[in-house]
Amino acid sequence: MGPVLWIGRAFLTEKAPTIHFNNQNIEIKSLDWNASFANAFNQSYSLIVVEVSERGHLEILESLRLHHPDTWVGVSFNQAPQELVHRALNSNQIRFFIQGPDWLEKLKAPLQDRHIYLRRNWLLREYYQRNKNLESLTSDLEKIVLERTLHLEQSNKDQTERIQMERALIRFIKEIASMSAVEDILKFLRKELRKFHKVGELVLYLQSGSRSEIYNFRNGTVQKITLVTPFKFMETKDISSSVAAKELANILGRPFAKAALFPLALTLLSQFHEKSARALLCFEHSMTMEESLEFEEFISERLNPVSISLDRVQLEHELDIFSYRWEKTFDGIRDPLAIIDMKYQLLRSNKKFVMGAKNHICHKAFANSDEICTGCPLEKAVNEGTPQTGEVRVGQSIYQVWSYPIRLYPNEKPTSFVNQYVDVTESRELYARMLQHEKMGAIGTLAGHIAHELNNPLTGIRSLAQVMMSEEESPEVRKDLEEIEKAAGRCQKTIKNLLEFTREEEVDKEMISLDEIVERTLPMLKTALRSHRLNLHLETKNIKVAVFPHLLQQVVFNLVNNACQAMIQAGVIKIATQKTGDKVILEISDTGPGISPEIKERIFEAFFTTKKVGEGTGLGLSISKTIVEKCGGQISFQSEPGQGTKFKIQFLVSKDTP
Amino acid sequence: MKVLVIDDEPLVRRSLSRALAQRGHQIFEAPDGLQGLEMWKKIQPDLVFVDVLMPGMKGPDVIKKMIGTPAKIILMTAFSGEEIVSEQDLPIDLFFKKPFENIFDIVSKAEELLK
């Protein structure tokens, strides 16, 4: 507490009076009424007391009230008129009054009041201050909290947006990954891009191998254009959008605004086509640079999945085509083909291959046999590792079989084999016929020479015999000469027949009876028939058929010759001709051992023979059958073991026969 | 009449000679073309029989040398002879194919030529 200022005379005599209050000595400053107050208010006072004894002192009170309104001012009275006391006390600025004597003691009460007041005031101020601080602190905190909250909210929003975008991307990838057509992918991408209003249609340029295609939207559906020549600008690395727009406008036949271009990497297709696969997505748009940024961000996130899907879909598509084409080719090949492993398990085969039962074992499927085909070159191909060939017979057919080893990787053992079966039955027959023709040609030429060589002396013999006969008188010699002449004549006839028999040139069919054919052939069979008996029953002398006489002679020769050879012991050959209805039948039968049932099916096959190597060509019956059929007839046979064999040839009677 | 027979086959020559001799002709024989030509120059025959295929000079060549001769020429062959005659445009009067059925037919046809 500050000192007390006492204006009056009560303490003037005392030197520095103090009041002991609240464990403190409070100084009392004393000033006479008339003293100057100029320096008295350099400090603040806890209390100011004015002694009022005359009217003039009230002015001091008034002045203090004006100049120091905050200071507590009190009055003390000492023998003052009543009226003055009232006036002083009525002034509202008076906080207390003291009536002497005993001033000091009586000052303690107002000091106490002042002390309480000041303390309360301080407390109030302090409280207020504190409150204010708290308020500001709260406000600061609130601000921070608000800021934080805003920040949090913002970041939360970003996060959600991010997550949503990522979700959208994942959905996009999932959807696109399950697609199986380029068209679907493009439709889907187009749908995704709908939110970019300034992006128009999209065009996909796809070059895969030698094919160049443009996928373009027309009335909401995808249209595919196959280009004859690839995009020129694709050849360069940097594709300018204006060039592309111009090119696209050319191809699509409509104006094309700005083009945003995104090359797509087609890794798999590139490998498949050995680097010649590329794709380019072109978006028609009217965006500004800033607008296109968002679009580019959006699309660049999706380019990779789009590329991968396109790559996959296109590759699948091309592999499908490839595989379809391969299978069609494989199935379309005329020769039976099979892919087999080294244990004769069928991996794949073409349609022509499966002739037996559908089976996973190759010989079962091909030949319907439980055993490996005789002559199959597979085993050799497995052992040698190189292509091998062999000959396989299935039923009536002969196959030249090739086994080609397949190596999936170079320098490795072959994993599988391609067996190709070339049907050589026909070419074998042709070859056989050619051989026969050549042989017959050679024989013909030879026979021609021999015939000429024989004809000359025979002519001489016969003519001389005729001359001698005309001159001879002895009947016995004449008879002998006659015999010579006749024999020479027969020789001449045989030679003539031989010449005709071996004649090479194609001749027209002739009208002739089967009897005549048989008779012409018999002289040549004399050797063969030497050890057998011939039984002739020719009854169709006047019935003619249209045939190639010398070819049919060959048939008769073959059949009779065969029959003679078949009979190990002496037997009977019967040659009979007869007419039945509109047919003439020639039968040649023997009393030989017959044909065993196992080979019955094969006797007309070319090269099939039961004779030893070098003794027969296996062509006789095959050629005979061909000749009979060429002449328009039929050949068949009956044979039982031990009962002999009967060949039957029949022709329709010619209408020209009377 | 003088008849020349050129043939490498002795039996043919012989039989022709004998058959012709029976009819009173004078017969000359030659076993090949060259000898035949010499004989032809020497005797100037009225009729010549020539075989086509002979060792050395062949029948058609012999006949070509005789172009302009007043003699009648008969060609004989064991091959089909029509082509030889037409191809080479030979001036022959008759053509016989061997073998002969009857030697006397040949002789009578040849005699008809001489009439």
Describe the SSE topology.
The complex is a heterodimer of chains A (658) and B (115).
Chain A: E1 4-7, E2 18-20, E3 25-31, E4 47-52, H1 57-67, E5 73-77, H2 82-90, E6 94-99, H3 103-177, H4 182-192, E7 199-208, E8 211-218, E9 221-227, H5 241-252, E10 258-264, H6 267-272, E11 277-285, H7 289-332, E12 337-340, E13 346-349, H8 362-367, H9 378-384, E14 388-394, E15 397-406, E16 416-423, H10 425-471, H11 475-501, E17 510-513, H12 514-521, H13 526-529, E18 533-538, E19 544-547, H14 549-566, E20 572-580, E21 583-589, H15 597-600, H16 620-630, E22 634-639, E23 645-652
Parallel strand pairs in A: 1-3, 1-4, 4-5, 5-6, 18-20
Antiparallel strand pairs in A: 2-3, 7-8, 7-11, 8-9, 10-11, 12-13, 12-16, 14-15, 15-16, 17-19, 20-21, 21-23, 22-23
Helix pairs in contact in A: 3-7, 10-11, 12-14, 14-16
Chain B: E1 2-6, H1 10-22, E2 26-30, H2 33-43, E3 47-51, H3 59-65, E4 72-77, H4 82-88, E5 94-97, H5 103-114
Parallel strand pairs in B: 1-2, 1-3, 3-4, 4-5
Helix pairs in contact in B: 2-3
Keywords:
heterodimer, A: 658 residues, alpha+beta, 23 strands, B: 115 residues, alpha/beta, five-stranded parallel β-sheet, 5 helices, 5 strands
Brief digest:
Chain A has 658 residues and is of the alpha+beta class. Chain A is built from 16 helices and 23 strands.
Description:
The complex is a heterodimer of chains A (658) and B (115). Helix content of chain A is 46%, strand content 23%. By secondary structure, chain A is α+β, with helices and mostly antiparallel strands. In chain A, the strands form 5 sheets. Chain A has a 6-stranded mixed β-sheet with strand order 2-3-1-4-5-6, with helices on both faces. In chain A, strands 9-8-7-11-10 form a 5-stranded antiparallel β-sheet. A 5-stranded antiparallel β-sheet of chain A has the order 13-12-16-15-14. Chain B has 5 helices and 5 strands, in the order βαβαβαβαβα. In chain B, strands 2-1-3-4-5 form a 5-stranded parallel β-sheet, sandwiched between helices. In chain B, helix 3 links the parallel strand 3 and strand 4 (72-77). In chain B, helix 2 packs parallel to helix 3 (59-65). The longest helix of chain B is centred in the N-terminal third of the chain and has 13 residues, at 10-22. The mean pLDDT of chain B is 87. The interface between A and B is medium-sized, with 18 and 23 residues.
